[in-house]
Every structure is written in structure tokens, then in C-alpha cells.
Amino acid sequence: MAESDEQYDALGAIYERAKHIPTGLAERATLLSAVGDLLGRSVLDVACGTGFYARLFHDLGATRVVGVDSAGEMIGYARYVEGREPRGITYEQHDATELPVLGEFDVVTAVWLLGYADDEAALDAMLANLKANLAQGGRLVVLVPNPDADWDLLGQYGRYGYEITRTGPMNVKQPVEVHVLGDPPFDFDSFYWERGVFDAALTRAGLTDVTRQPVVTPDDERGEEFWGPLRKSPSFAVFTAVRGAR
């Protein structure tokens, strides 16, 4: 195996591990519930990262999938996997604040994207670009840090695979560091915005049927004692909205 392949495999093993820890399983179940039936649909996945969800959308029946990310390293890994396991997914490198119109998609997703907007003006710009890629009647699905988070419960999140530490004062958005447990562990920065900001921005974008989706957790042997606190205060929230008539 070439050294670059080894590097890509290591990259994927680290970043995609977060999709398999308990909170990642709940994230995935909630997102897929919100996305709905993808059979025969077209999907644009913005902030696609390593292409984890783009591949899953294809495997769930989407006939056209396009992934977009601003990080060349992530797009490189996603293309590497596409070359190794062809699905017909295309990947492009764009910043969400300057995202061009790539088509009219039935579904546009943005997982963990909006929390990284610099301010509300940048948030509005991102949403305008996401909406511009939606077909009439198309659905936007965004996953963001939970604006109603109970910080006492988040302090116990080690049982779900990562730890969240506030790193600065709350000023519209709360900066945090997320420490993903495992071997090797890794950290990334995130931001928890005030309650109501995402809902209002989706409405300002001219989208309709803005809905916060219920949290879905795996139905496994760990049961309510384990999953109950996560449903009460998940690390994430999923909102959906629809593009109406032009």
C-alpha cells in the first residue's frame, strides 16, 4: 500500500470514529429519520467531511449524491474512498459562504456546518446558498450543536464517547472544545449558539415548515437508563425546512 493510502486510511479511522461512538449513533439515527426516504432522490451534502454521510445516502437509494467541503484534506479522503469503492458520488471543494449553485437537489444536508458561521450574517449567507441548491419542494436538513443543552448533563457525556468543555464566555455562541475518546483521542472546536438563532435564520432565509426533529436513539440492550440522558440533552439538534414555490 502506498504511503498516501496509509495516511488516508489513518485519517478516516480517526475522524469517522466519532460516527460510531454512542452519541454518533444517535446523531446518525436522528439525521436519517429527518432525511426520510432517499430512494430515487438527489442529495447535496455540504460540509461532507470524509464523505461518511454522502456514502450512506447513496447506499440508502439516492441516485445522485454530491459532497462539498472547504477542507482539501477531507475532499481528498472522500475521493480516495470513491476511487476504491466507486458509487458515482462526486466531491467538490467550496466554502459554504461562497457555495455556487450546483443543481436543484431534492435534499440538501449540512451536518455540523452552521455552528461554525462567524456571525449571523455569515449564517444567513450559508443558508441562502443551501436554499439556492434546493429544488422547489426540496428539504433542507441541518444538524447543529444543541441550543437547549443542559450543561450539567453534557458534563457526563464521557459515557457517550466524548467530553465537552466550555472554553470561553457565551456571546451569542458558546465556544467549546470537544474531546473524542478512544485510541488515539482527538479534539476539535465547536460553538453552541443561543436558543432561537437557527430557527430564526431558517425562517429569514424564506424556508417554510421549519421543524426541530425528535432525537432518535438506538433500540439496543443499553436501554433507557443509558440513552435517556442523551435524549434529554443531546449534543446536537436537527432542524428541517422546505423550499416553497419561487
UniProtKB/TrEMBL annotation:
The keyword Transferase applies. It comes from the Bacteria. SUPFAM superfamilies: S-adenosyl-L-methionine-dependent methyltransferases. GO terms for molecular function: methyltransferase activity. Gene3D superfamilies: Vaccinia Virus protein VP39. PANTHER family: TRANS-ACONITATE 2-METHYLTRANSFERASE (PTHR43861:SF1), TRANS-ACONITATE 2-METHYLTRANSFERASE-RELATED (PTHR43861). Pfam families: Methyltransf_25. One of its GO terms (biological process) is methylation. This is Methyltransferase domain-containing protein. Keywords: Methyltransferase, Transferase. InterPro entries: Methyltransf_25, SAM-dependent_MTases_sf. Residues 43-138 form the Methyltransferase domain. It comes from Lentzea jiangxiensis.
